[in-house]
Write a structure and sequence with these properties.
heterodimer, A: alpha/beta, Rossmann fold, six-stranded mixed beta sheet, two-stranded antiparallel sheet, globular, B: alpha/beta, seven-stranded mixed beta sheet, two-stranded antiparallel ribbon, 17 helices, nucleotidyltransferase activity (chain A), sulfurtransferase activity (chain A), tRNA binding (chain A), CTU2 (chain A)
Chain lengths: 377, 429
């Protein structure tokens, strides 16, 4: 509890507990620290997760290429800033770097105005961090991916003549709820990113998810019926898509990222599209998604119980995928589904097949429970 | 515009929108569908055998009243061949049970079932009111839950009954899953989703036939069947984690009605992913049967009324404090040791805290899983030497809260942590 720590320091203006010289302005878990030490903490924690990519030996090797998805949110902006400095440091010392970033923004909005904004935003990044390669892709490009079972989604060639942006809008418009819509969007986004990474021979992807975001994701996926997929969703390591996923900010809370983004010089404010405040989220709105609810929930838990947030992530990463299980890939999200457990029907909780409402199920291909739920409700 | 017709019979007027899937049904079809779903659960999980004597844990509340009514109906309709008995617990909370026990007594007449009432005072020498006097209003739910759980089993044993059914519904199960995720309790996460706890070796098995039934549908069923039940909330506050998980579940349901069922499904799948050394449950065993949780508080909701999150959060604050201490300890450790390569997870870190927290390393080494034995004090089944109820009683009888349990090396890590945390909560309160 922050208050208790302050009380232990008898002085009125407590000094930073790390350097002991500057005034304490921030709180790192149980310590009051100055802004310098705070930024140092965030950077060290992040770079520590990049241990695999520190420079080893003296011989010059080709830097390894990593995909860097950039959403313009506070987390990915901060991570890019930290890694840019990391790389600059490597270069200054060794005249080479151990990895290079391929920074990619995916347009999830089809509106031309939004897309123009994204272009302008990316230009700012190029100016500030010129060391990296940048690219923009549009979400509808996911509609051309081979790995997705379009037939299972009812999108089989029917409108293949129409522009893909239109087809994407039609697909999302046919979703019956905001949650299903956002679920499909994030799934397509993930599939597109993996495809971009593979096509550009990136050996891994660096996600900007904070501790808080990973905890959110854990409960969001649980609430969407994708509990089975958690071992692949929040741990660092090889994903079922064959690309290594890293979450270098996994030990940093969202509120810490928010603070950090204001402490860089100059601050990252211009580079960040601020997310909507979660206080406006209401469970009775038709537009509210499960993702929104969880973001709101963990923002409040993080406020007073940051270690509980971290513990959710730590606990979840102990879940182990079953080694001897025969699986097949979900036709939409691509995650491994144990044979016979696909779809929302045919398990204990599906009790009344005769009175089942909704679509008649002729061909559905293999969809995991979560994707099947999004497509069917 | 013509009134909407029932989606099932297509003749009567639809009067009910099913909370589970928003299907429009007439009253008769809703009742039939609700019963058919419980029947489906019972049949597909082979819950009962002909000739079984079953005790229904009856609180007089909606869940257990609906359970008793549905089981009576199904037993007659499908010739289950079950002998059904109502079993009630009197926690000794003034003003809370008086009316609900009257309800259960009427139910016994209405359903023509024998009724057995067991009091905490006769089982433990303490009523809940007396416990609260000692413990305070915070943290007493643990006592109530542990005592009730055993009370049901002990009552059943007295009656020579080997199977107790409880009214836990899908909302309760979903809530328990989220709660165990929030407090990082994998062993309980693994256990709480099974429809049956306890196996052939245990004296008393417990099951929850309403596991997939939505609370809202249970209320609707009770209403349309005009069942006689008692509405009340437990006077004492719920645990923070459960209250927190409960309001989350309610919000999720509003955003996507299937979410409750989806959480239950996730929980069932995740139970299989919990490493064996944590649960003691072999993966080759069916997930439907798990280790008895005789001394657990796996689903404290039964009988705790609707704990709707009006708690102070003391339990969460205590856990937060404990976790922060661990964090500080492990960060000190990291500073002294080799850098941790990325990709390794935190298990390693926890083990390395050994020199600072000797108790912890003991407990994680002995993480051999729980085996079912009997309590040395009361002879009741337990996974520990002394069952949880007896441990709590010992504390009560010494007129102070439970303590010292953390030295118990048999204990699995997270529950040790939780107990310490409870200890902190009690000390603070």
């Amino acid at each position: 509890m922050p208050g208790e720590i302050l009380a232990q320091n008898s002085s009125d203006a407590p000094l930073c507990q790390r350097c002991g010289t500057e005034a304490a302005t921030h709180n790192v878990r149980s310590e009051d620290v100055c802004s310098n030490c705070f930024s140092q903490y965030v950077q060290t924690k992040t770079i520590k997760r990049m241990e695999t990519y520190r420079i080893r030996g003296s011989s010059a090797k080709t830097p390894r290429k990593l995909l860097f998805p950039l959403s313009f949110g506070p987390s990915s902006a901060s991570l890019l800033h930290i890694l840019d400095q990391h790389l600059r440091g490597q270069y200054d010392r060794m005249k080479r770097t151990s990895y290079e970033l391929y920074v990619v923004h995916i347009n999830v909005y089809v509106d031309p105005v939004d897309r123009k904004d994204a272009d302008e935003m990316l230009e700012k990044y190029k100016t500030r961090y010129p060391r990296h390669n940048y690219a923009i892709f549009n979400l509808e490009e996911a509609l051309g991916l081979d790995g997705i079972d379009w037939k299972a989604l009812g999108l089989e060639n029917s409108d293949s003549m129409a522009p893909s942006a239109e087809r994407l809008q039609k697909l999302l418009g046919s979703m019956s709820s905001a949650t299903s819509r956002s679920d499909i969007v994030s799934t397509l986004l993930a599939r597109l990113l993996v495809d971009v990474a593979k096509r550009n021979s990136c050996e891994g992807t660096l996600f900007g998810d904070s501790t808080t975001r990973l905890a959110e994701k854990t409960l969001t996926e649980t609430a969407k019926g994708r509990g089975f997929s958690l071992p692949w969703q929040i741990s660092d390591g090889t994903s079922p898509h064959g690309i290594t996923f890293y979450y270098p900010l996994r030990d940093i809370l969202k509120k810490e990222i928010m603070s950090f983004s204001t402490l860089t010089s100059p601050p990252l404010t211009d580079l960040i599209v601020q997310p909507h405040p979660t206080s406006q989220i209401s469970a009775s709105s038709k537009l509210t998604t499960i993702d929104d609810l969880m973001a709101q929930y963990f923002e409040s838990v993080e406020e007073n119980f940051p270690s509980i947030v971290a513990n959710v992530v730590r606990t979840t990463s102990k879940l182990q995928s079953l080694p001897n299980e025969t699986t097949e890939a979900c036709g939409l999200c691509g995650l491994p589904v144990a044979v016979g457990t696909d779809g929302i029907h045919g398990w204990g909780g599906d009790q009344n097949s005769e009175s089942r409402p909704g679509k008649d199920d002729t061909y559905h291909g293999i969809l995991c429970y979560g994707c099947s739920r999004s497509m069917n409700s | 515009m013509a009134p909407a017709l029932c989606a099932n019979c297509k003749t009567s007027r639809a009067l009910i929108i099913r909370p589970k899937n928003h299907q429009k049904l007439c009253k008769e079809c809703f009742i039939a569908v609700f019963e058919a779903e419980i029947h489906h659960t019972i049949i597909t999980t082979s819950l009962f055998s002909p000739g079984d004597k079953i005790a229904i844990g009856a609180s007089g509340g909606k869940d257990s009243t609906v359970l008793a009514s549905v089981l009576k109906t199904l037993n007659e309709r499908h010739n289950y061949g079950l002998e059904l008995v109502l079993l009630s617990i009197d926690e000794g909370i003034k003003g809370y049970r008086d009316d609900s026990l009257e309800t259960v007594k009427r139910n016994a007449v209405q359903y023509d079932m024998p009724l057995k009432i067991v009091g905490y005072d006769e089982l433990y020498g303490w009523t809940m009111d007396q416990v609260v006097e000692v413990i305070g209003k915070k943290g007493n739910c643990t006592y109530c839950g542990v005592f009730r759980r055993q009370a049901l089993d002990r009552g059943a044993k007295m009656l020579g009954i080997k199977h107790v059914v409880t009214g836990h519904n899908a909302d309760d199960v979903a809530e328990t899953i989220l709660m165990n995720l929030l407090r990082g309790d994998l062993p309980r996460l693994a256990r709480s989703t099974s429809i049956v706890t306890g196996d052939a070796t245990s004296d008393v098995r417990r099951s929850k036939p309403l596991k997939y039934a939505y609370e809202k549908e249970i209320v609707l069923y009770a209403h349309h069947k005009k069942l006689d039940y008692f509405t009340t909330e437990c006077l004492y506050s719920p645990e923070a984690f459960r209250g927190s998980a409960r309001s989350l579940i309610k919000n999720l349901e509003r955003v996507r009605p299937s979410a409750i069922l989806d959480v239950v499904r996730s929980g069932e799948d995740m139970a299989k992913l919990v490493p064996e050394e944590v649960t003691g449950i072999s993966q080759c065993k069916s997930q439907k049967v798990s280790l008895s949780s005789a001394d657990g508080e796996d689903e404290g909701a039964g009988g705790c009324g609707s704990a709707n999150g009006r708690s102070s959060g003391g339990e969460m604050a205590a856990m937060e404090k404990k976790l922060q201490q661990d964090e500080t300890a492990s960060s000190r450790e990291i500073d002294m040791s080799n850098p941790i390569a990325s990709g390794q997870n935190h298990d390693r870190l926890i083990k390395k805290t050994g020199p600072i927290k000797p108790v912890r390393i003991e407990s994680s080494k002995k993480l051999v899983g729980q085996t079912l034995g009997t309590c040395k004090t009361c002879g009741y089944m337990s996974s520990q030497e002394i069952c949880k109820a007896c441990t709590l009683l010992e504390g009560l009888n010494k007129n102070r809260p439970k303590m010292e349990i953390e030295i118990d090396v048999e204990e699995e890590e997270s529950s040790t942590l939780r107990r310490r945390m409870e200890g902190v909560a009690l000390a603070a309160g």
